Amino acid sequence: MVAYPNGPLLVRGDFEIITPDGVPVPRDRGTVALCRCGGSAIKPYCDGTHKLMKFDTARRRPVPGPVLERSRGAGEKADGTENNGSAKDAEDTGGRASS
Known about the structure:
Layout: E1 2-3, E2 9-12, E3 31-34, H1 49-52, H2 87-92
Antiparallel strand pairs: 1-2, 2-3
């Protein structure tokens, strides 16, 4: 398996692709390109859409905010304001859920 920068995963050899429901995905080649950008019209296979959308594998995804205590309402911080999981919320609580 090779992850191409800004492109698909290229998979070679004897393997089977299975959907989350357990159904095998048909393939007629020994080497396939699997979509990583999420934009392909023929998922799980790549159709080249990553080029059109300028898919960038170097761009980092945001880190999820802190997990709140279960005794509070979902999304509610200790001071009663809403927590949207932003970096600002993490700063306000010192990077951890406030008590």
